Amino acid sequence: MTLTAVATTTTLSAITRPVIFFLDSSGDRNEPHFLTLCAVESAALQNPGHDVHVYSNAFDTQTWSHISSHIKVLPFEPLIWMGSEASARDFDAMRQWYLSDASAKGFAINNIANAMRLVLLYKHGGTYLDTDVLSLKPLSSLGWQENILAYQNEEEDLKLSREIELTINVATMVNFLPRADLIKDMIATFVKEFQADLWGWQGPQLVTRVYKKGAYSDVTVLQKYTLNPVGWHQVDLLFKSVNDGDGARLWRDISSRSTLVHFWGSLISEQLPYTRDDSIVAQLYRETCPVFYASHFEKRPQLSSLFPSALIRGTRTQTRPDATTITAHLHGLILLHTRIEVSHPRVGQQLSSIDWKEIPQMLYAVMLKLDVESVVAETGDVNYRPPNRIMENEMRRILAEDFLVCTGVLNEMKICRPFSGDSTVTKQDYPFGHVLSPGYHVIFTWLETRQRGIRRMLSPMSMMAITSVSVNFENIKITAQGEVRRRQLRDFKDALPMTAVMKGPTKFGTMSYYSNDVHFARQLAVGRMFDEVALDTLAPHIRASSVILDVGGHCGSHTVAYASMNPLAKIFTYEPQKKMFRLLQQNIADNNLEGQVVALNFALGNKACAAAEHVWSRRGFRPVRTHGRWRNLPPDGSARQFWCYGTYVDRKGRGAD
Which of 118, 110, 127, 102 minimizes the C-alpha distance to 40? Predict the structure, then answer.
């Protein structure tokens, strides 16, 4: 779940430091998810010879500064990436799609990330990783091949997933050359065959369709285990213990064969707080991102504090005087040593919009594993050592008669049922029995005592089964992402309206301006310059000066006037807004002032400062980001200039990116 400083060259070998980049297209100010924190840290630690770029308007620029000086958070600027340079015509169709209402439909945020991944790979090359991909080994372990992809499934996976063919994953696109034919064809196909609300259509299905149709001899597609060892339908395995069974086997395979691991963050993020320390997830975090593991994951709340008390509220039965301490102690030991496992539904399972109303009839499969030897060892009764059949029968009776298996979903329901079985390893399937509302749900399963006379007890967190599922997964995504994207487009159109550039004559020269730039447009439309009163006041000083500084030059209306008043003066015009700066350059060129005017895309200050850029929207004046660098000013270096790039638009909608 993911760039501009890279030179546009024709081979990776010509790039001094190759780039690994991640994308965050949400745009909302937030703290990066733990998966993202770890993904970026692991990429930097495993690949010290690479620059790591995180393109986001949401994350703080200092988030990873303590990890590596080669990690940079840069603005997420699609229109700049698809902008005015020579390669811009390659993105004409993509630019039109991005500005259209189609980009706000369906899985809007995912679709934008899919599109911009292609734009940046085509322009600059490098390695793209989703923000939920961990780096286990250096990319050089792949042998410095170029244009590397990998499958996300194998033949045997097709039986377990909804996929009907081997599919290439786009979460990991490694060592791509700029202007690769595959990426060019993917861009064209993206726009031509765009389907907003079909999950994966613009991602793995796009690259698979294009790759299978073409002949791309320069592209290498690796087997699943190399970059994507765990399929989306197998994410529950990530929470298995590294010490036994399937978990141990998977951990050995990942450790020995995989360079990257895709975590399928949208499926497991709700489960992460309940991760056990011996799980594959915890082990991967511990090894690949030690800094954020220590500061975030290791310090996560204890499981006992995460268990919602709302699920276990009820009348507690007071211990009766005739209830024996031995019986209560035995019940407590059984709870302490009976591990619960839920084999269905699995962690990350998606319940679709078609079947979610049938959830009450959904199979809920529970297994109890009672460690008899541990119980016997702690009873202190020598008569039961070693464990014998009498003791085992007694424990089975207690499980069947004195305990209930309880299932709870916070704010949804709690259901308890008797459990029957004739073994210390007992399985039971029964209907789930409750309709879940659309959304993400964490399901707890535990044992409770039900014998009269014994104080109500329940399983400790270490023995509970905790699984998370989503109901109406696709509709949840579409609703949430569509709202975010519509808000982005609305703000963009409010603050940075894409209106026509107008051009007309004035008494000082020809001027181009934005028709919706109200204060300037009113004057320029009738052949007058903005604020001619000020120009008249300044005229004697302008004519007497040899050097003129126009600070905040906007589109150049006063710069052109100054040049007309004093053709011999050298004029330095400073304008930080990129769009206005381009208009300034156009007006300088239209009036043949290139030899007289020096246009600088900077903002100025007389002391070191942080420039907080803002954008005006219907919700008011709000910060976007802070970014900048200092340089010396001509002519004598006595002042300093601050280069700000980003957005500043006033309440009248004046200005642009």
Answer: 127
User: Which residues have C-beta within 8 Å of that of residue 138, sequence separation ≥ 6?
Assistant: 46, 47, 259
* C-beta separation of 455 from 318 below 8 A: yes
Question: In a 3-state reduction of DSSP, which class is residue 268?
Answer: helix
| Candidate from 514-523, 554-563, 568-577, 583-592 with smallest mean pLDDT | 514-523
Pair 50, 135: CB distance under 8 Å: no
How is residue 366 written in tokens?
């529970």
Say what the pLDDT of residue 614 is: 37
d(CA 560, CA 581): 14
CA atoms of 590 and 594, how far apart (whole Å): 9
Confidence bin at 14 (pLDDT 50/70/90):
very low
Residue 618 confidence class, pLDDT cut points 50, 70, 90: very low
Helix, strand, coil share (%) of the chain residues, nearest 5: 40, 25, 40
Residue 218 — left, alpha, or beta (φ > 0 → left; ψ -120 to 50 → alpha)? alpha
For residue range 41-60, list pLDDT tens digits in order.
999 999 999 999 999 877 87
| Segment holding 489, helix H or strand E | helix 473-495
The total number of residues written for the chain in this structure: 657
Name beta bridge partners: 126.
176
Closest C-alpha to 133, from 200, 206, 230? 230
Rg (CA), the chain: 32
- Cβ neighbors of 184 (< 8 A, separation 6 or more) are 90, 122
% the chain with pLDDT above 90: 28
The Cα 71–Cα 44 span in angstroms is 7
Task: State yes or no: cis peptide before 345, omega within 30 of 0.
Answer: yes
Query: Rounded to whole angstroms, how far apart are CA atoms 264 and 254?
Result: 16
The residue among 509, 588, 578, 525 whose CA lies nearest residue 556 is 588
> Considering only CA atoms, which of 413, 409, 416 is closest in space to residue 458?
416
86-94, Cβ contacts within 8 angstroms, sequence gap of 24 or more? 87/8, 87/123, 90/122, 90/184, 90/187, 91/119, 91/187, 93/187, 93/188, 93/191, 93/192, 94/118, 94/119, 94/187, 94/190, 94/191
Nearest to 482 by CA among 110, 102, 58, 105: 105
Distance of CA 657 to the CA centre of its chain: 24
Spatial CB neighbours of 538, under 8 Å, sequence gap ≥ 6? none
Distances (CA, A) of 244 to 92, 240, 348: 54, 8, 21
Distance CA 554, CA 119 (A): 30
The domains located in the chain, with CATH, are 12-226 (3.90.550.20), 304-477 (no CATH), 501-643 (3.40.50)
Establish whether the linkage from the previous residue to 301 is cis, with ω within 30° of 0.
no
Strand, coil or helix: 60: coil
Pairing label, strands 126-129, 19-23: parallel
Helix (H, G, I), strand (E, B) or coil at 35: helix
How many angstroms separate the CA atoms of 511 and 538, rounded?
20
